[in-house]
Amino acid sequence: MEKRLFNFIGCLLIIFLLSGCWDIVNIEDRGLIIGMAIDFAEGQEAAENHLTVTTQFAVPPGLGNPAQSGGGGNPYMNLSASGNSIDLITQKIANQTNKIPFFEHLKVIAISEEVASTPGLMADVLDIFIRNRDTDRGIDVIISKDKAKDILEIEPENEKLPTLYLFELLEKNLKETNKLKNTKLGDIHDYLLTKRSFVLTELASKEKLLEETDGAIYGSVSEKVIGKLELNEMFGLNLVTEEDARGPIEVEIEGGITTFSIREAKSIVNVQAKNQENPKINVQIKLEGELQETFGGLVLNDIESNLKLEKKVAAKTEEIVEKTIKKAQQEFEADIFGFLDELNKSDYKTWKKMKDDWEKGEKYFVNSEITVNVIAEVRAHGVIDKSNKK
Amino acid sequence: MRRRYTKKANWPSKNIKEQTSNESLNSQLDANIQKLKQLLDGPNDLVIREFLLNNNPTMKGSVVYMDGLIDKQLVQESILRNMKDFASNKKSYDTSKTILEVMYENFISIHSVEKGNTLEDALDGILVGKTVILIDGQTSALIINTKGGESRSIDEPTTEMVVRGPRVGFVESLGTNLALLRKSLQTSSLRFQTHQIGRRSKKSLVVAYVDGVVHPEIVKEVNRRIQSIDIDDAPESGFIEQWIEDSFLSPFPQMDNTERSDKASSELLQGKVVILLDGTPFVLIAPFTLGDFLKSPEDYNERWLIGTLLRILRYVAAFFALLLPSLYIALISLHPGLLPTDMALSIAATREEVPFPPVAEAFLMVLTMELLQEAGLRLPAPIGQTIGIVGGLVIGDAAVSAGIVSPIMVIVIGLTAISAFATPSFSLGISFRILRIAFMLAAGILGLFGIILVYIMVMIHMVNLKSFGVPYTAPFSPTMDRDWKDLILRAPMTILTRRPNFMNTKDVDSGSREKE
Amino acid sequence: MKFLYSNETISDKELKIAIPSMIIGVGVLSLPSGIASVTVGSDGWIALLIAGILQMGVIWLMAKVASSFPKQSFLSYSAKLVSKPVAVVITFTFAVYFICVTAYDIRMLGHISEQYLFKKTPVEVVMLAFLLVVVYAVSGSRVGIFRLNILFLPIILIVAIVVFLLSSKIMDVSNLRPAFQTDIKGHMHGLYTSALSYIGISIILFYTSFVENPKNIPKVSIIGVTVPVVLYIVVYLNCILVFGQVGTSNMLFPTVDLAKRVDLPGGMLERIEALFFTVWTMGVFTTAMMVFDVAILALQSIFKKIKKIHIILFLSPLVYFIGTIPKNTTQIIQFGNYIATSMYIYGYLIAIVLFIIAKVRKGKSNGKKAI
């Protein structure tokens, strides 16, 4: 009996003494990377190296610690290095810091427009992030108009970490107005696999502030960013593709501007490709919303004025969406709306025949006839009829 | 371990007091007295009161007892006074009877009187507080139960407080305890089986069960194991528990102990066996399974909804008590990706100044906590509170300010300690403390994977563990879904009409809803 | 009055739970990807369902054979059907297969944990730690193994359901289309892939000797197979709904990635893949434990004189060694496919042959003596 007990204790001791702690890296010893920016190398480095990667490390003490007063210091640290592959560059960056780079909290990847406009390069630089198990498919990817590095150096007033600011901007704030496209790494993986064009948010910064935003169109044929969408057009795109698009629509009625805000939007895309030469695509959008603000004399107390507003809103929306479609179809010849996917889902056999000639070759997409129908419903007009007597 | 029982099933009772060796009583009173004195080495608490019978100087008798073990009033009123009467009495008695029988019939007004024939009988009687009457010329003695002496009054047990429930706890006297059990369980089928335990110090041990409810095999097994006990003395029921438990390598308690008579009686009705030992207020309840350990008698005293919520709370507490420090280590050291970014940043900020890795930090804090607990336990109540304040508040706060531990670690340890105290059973709480260390070590080596491996090992151990033939994990596994009504949930009283299935009781129903 | 608990018999309920515990293991982690890569849209469920029904048929055959020889070990009843030497060979081959499956399970677990949990910890250490736990489990009582299944299976199923519910936020129902577009070849391929994740159902041939109620075995085992069939279909559809067919087919372990995309409500924890995989370890553990136990059982029936613990001590290093043979991801997957395919064919062949012989014998004896 005693012998057994000793054997047992002996085994336990051996296990504990022989074991190592291979993977232990305490949280404070890790450099939490929250944002990355990818640019072309510049200056003398450019000769040997191709790319410059800037990583944003969060510096927790700089964020302030409730237990210890003060803290102080910069809440983040941007480190850059140049090289030919992302992995090599991150190794170089690791040499510049005392912390061990940790990618699991990476939130935003910014790619400069220059890099993204080089054929095939964007897919290449993103490969490591899709492949690596540390990075998440929910990372936001954005395009930076100038140097992507500058995007990581903006100084928002209310947030200490630029990356978290960008992340929250994409996740929350602009979901209300729906003019940014929150394209995730996982989505891009799917798009690249299905060879589909898509749109990313493009941001520009000036003097450490975000300046303008619009959308960058990634064309699947040329495998690069091929053009831009304005904010209004982004809105039109979101109305077609997003499940719950929101945002205001301005219409002119009764001699003044009236704003209608969308509470619920639904879009149904119907692709008819019986005739291959001339596929018919119908986009039906149903809006529900309420009157937010009016500058003119609009009073919504009868059915007629309601109907009038609804018609105006519908017409305006149609105009926005059609403009976007026209731009994508004619100017860029890129199916950013995923009409081909829709065809895949509704008519698999036709899709199989047409998929290779959708954007290139026969260019079925360019030749297709796209119609937009919008039905708008005004559900409420606030808690008053009018705010002043006119 | 199991082998031990089979070997010792019929352990021959060794003759311990070789000197007495079942020597029968001498017909000479003086010789008997002499022998008794010699055996006990003539202590001064041994009282020998001599008297003459019928004023006949040749007929001597002695009343022998231990001062302090007897009920003085009882001895004086019912024995010594009667003896005086007997001595002065001149009446003649039925001569066919011996003088002892005459005394027994006419003069001793105490209910429990036995006749002893050997010196050992007399000696054992004296040592447990009985009074022995020896008469010159008789080879037997009257052994009268006059047990008494100082004892505690019945109090509310301090180890198992309840808000609502009877304020009655067992005391150190076996007789009182049996009476308490009888009082709270007024059924004719309550059975007591008495054993004598101990080589040198003989103690009574009673196995109590409800006949017709408990499965006979369990009683048989309990009795068999108790018969195998061979120790000098059993000062506390813990000795009995350790002698008869299924596995001494297991960190888990396989029997419960309680001071509450209401808990003991309700467990009896669930088909369990209660083991009472003279000299301790703690009685043992067997068999006991994991699910039983997380029940508290109070669950049944409150309404079912409250009882259910408290049960769930207790399971959560058990989870915290076991795993919280190890999860902290695993998340901070190995898997910070699981934490939300904001939280990861704030934890990293608080840990920036801490010199130790989380494993060392956690061990330091757990050690501190155990020390505080142990220190507080041994001190008188008012000082104990001071220890709590000094330890909990001052050390905790100072440790954080000094940057030795991070504030989150203090929260984790505090939560763990509170959760551990929320486990109703002290012995299970201790096993949780042991396992917590194992989990922490595993988390320090392999992170979450280590935790799950230890968890699986604990589970393997548990499914192989039995408490008196009942699987420790019953009724989770083997599954008896009928018993789940009173496991994590506590169903309304009107639904709990059955005794636990896993106890395999003879009488299945404990009530019925159909009764008018 | 008999006391309820004995150490050497298995109730219906325990067998019912043992079968899904056995089947659900590492397979389901990569299964959706294998199916999605050969089918179109969400059509993979058809292959999964058909494979499941086929499994039910096969397990019914096996159970029928086994239950007609109640309380007899596989070796003894197969010896009655196909002479002793042949039976020994069959049993031994089964034992070898089961050892290989144990090794594969342990290696796969080590491999996935290397991908999702650890970076520097050597895979050998992870495998060794896991193997030791498995050894600890099989050295206990056999009933203990079945009781462990009962404790673990609900946790695994609950975790799968929780992931399913949490991911409903990021599901895209349109991913289910196109439906019914896969050609026969794709379906056949999918059938093959999904069938591979049912390896190990042959344990039923061995465990029947412990079953209290041999008559119920066929029914019980079919119910047992239903659980993994449903689970597989749910997990597969879940992956398709979240990642789409193309995304799913391009991941190695889409089920783990699914957990990676999920956040707990209230933002308590992000990316719970480590947690998910940790809990899933229990599922892999039950598989490895049972396969190992059956291997021991088979060897025990051949070498009656050797103690169980000695067999375990002999086999454990062997399992470990086999587990370390494959060098990289591709080889591990190949190893798994190879074992699964050959074991599949072997197990089914044996089941069918035994069933036919049993039928013929029964026909010959013509009810004179019930077998």
Short note summarizing the structure:
With 390 residues, chain A is an alpha/beta fold.
Give an overview of the whole structure.
The complex is a heterotrimer of chains A (390), B (516) and C (371). With 390 residues, chain A is of the alpha/beta class. Chain A has helices spanning 2-18, 86-96, 113-116, 121-131, 148-151, 162-177, 185-194, 231-241, 303-332, 339-346, 348-354, 364-367; strands at residues 30-40, 51-58, 76-83, 100-102, 108-112, 140-144, 198-206, 209-219, 224-229, 247-253, 256-272, 280-294, 369-380. Chain A has 2 domains: 25-229, no CATH class; 241-390, GMP Synthetase, Chain A, domain 3. Helices cover 34% and strands 30% of the residues of chain A. In chain A, strands 1, 2, 3, 4, 5, 6, 7, 8 and 9 form a 9-stranded mixed sheet that branches. A 4-stranded mixed sheet of chain A has the order 10-11-12-13, with helices on both faces. Chain A is globular, with a radius of gyration of 26 Å. Chain B has 3 domains: 29-145, no CATH class; 174-288, no CATH class; 300-471, no CATH class. Helices cover 46% and strands 13% of the residues of chain B. Chain B has a 5-stranded antiparallel sheet, with helices on both faces. A 5-stranded antiparallel sheet of chain B has the order 6-7-9-10-8, with helices on both faces. In chain B, strands 11-12 form a two-stranded antiparallel sheet. In chain B, a hairpin with a 5-residue loop joins β4 (130-135) and β5 (141-145). In chain B, α12 packs antiparallel against α16, α14 packs antiparallel against α15 and α14 crosses α16. The radius of gyration of chain B is 30 Å and the shape is elongated. Chain C is mainly alpha-helical and 371 residues long. Chain C has a single domain (12-357), classed as Amino acid/polyamine transporter I, CATH 1.20.1740.10. Chain C has 14 helices and no strands. In chain C, α4 (74-82) crosses α5 and α5 packs antiparallel against α12 (273-302). Chain C is globular. Chains in contact: A-B, A-C, B-C. Chain B binds chain C through residues 215-217, 334-335, 337-341, 446-453, 456-457, 459-460, 463-464, 466, 469-471, 473-474, 476-479, 502, 504, 506, and chain C through 1, 3-5, 11, 13-14, 113, 117-118, 121, 125-126, 129-130, 133, 136-137, 140-141, 143-144, 147-148, 150-152, 263, 267-272, 274-275, 278-279, 281-282, 285.
